Amino acid sequence: MHNIYQNIITSKAKDIKLLAVLIDPDKMKPNQVSNFLNKVHQSIATHIFVGGSNVDDGLTDSLVLEIKKHTKLPVILFPGDVIQITDKADGILFLSLISGRNPDYLIGKQVKAVSKLTKTDLEIIPTGYVLIENGKETAVQRVSETKPIKRSELQLIKDTTKAGELLGMKLIYLEAGSGATHPIEPYIITEVKQQLNIPLIVGGGIRTKAEMESAYKAGADLVVIGTAFEKDESFFNELKNVT
Asked: Is residue 243 part of a domain?
């Protein structure tokens, strides 16, 4: 499967909104996958993201292998570290934490990943990752040892995301962080969206259908939901595919 990015571009052009379900290998066991994905398939979800900030070696590989047995949705790696790269997936968000100033997460981890990536058929999608302050310390913040951008610093958020696009990123990912106390405000999404020519992903803190729809209305092309499903799988019932 090497048309993931093109399908995102096509959906953006047609104003078709996308939804990714984020599965953390450290929280999802292989024997839970089948039941979980049955619910995913009944929802409006279009993509499966797999990744986490702290994942033991080998967990991602075995989990993705199990996921692929039960879904035809594109499975995309959202890795927190090089050890989460597996050729069992369809693609990978090749992340650079452009909101931080830790060189290891700007380019260091990416350099270490190259030798593994060149041995796979993964579709590699360069992605500018922008962490936005959400009221508490996130796993990304702890692991990367970087500070998120404050929500009040709107111009810095806009300049950072635009810089990512100008550097050649194919996607921008606005992230409030796993378990965020509240999602990124719509006005921030709108201001960022207005200056970008590439698709915008928004994730973190989205726990209701209304919050998801608010993100879409503000300009998100793809919304990512993880913790809300982990804590309450009944949330899938709110996102039933009625078509």
From this structure: no
Q: Does 243 have pLDDT greater than 50?
A: no
Tell me what the mean pLDDT of segment 91-119 comes to.
98
Q: How far apart are CA 4 and CA 125, in angstroms?
A: 9
In a domain, 18, yes or no: yes
3-state SS string for 105-121: HHHHHHHHHHHHHCCCC
pLDDT digit string (tens) for 179-230? 788 899 999 999 999 999 999 999 999 999 999 999 999 999 999 999 788 7
Beta bridge partners of 240: 43
Task: State the total domains in the chain.
Answer: 1
Distance (Å, rounded) from C-alpha 223 to C-alpha 221? 7
Q: How many CB atoms lie within 10 A of CB 61?
A: 17
Rg (CA), the chain: 16
Which of 75, 59, 66, 69 minimizes the C-alpha distance to 30? 66
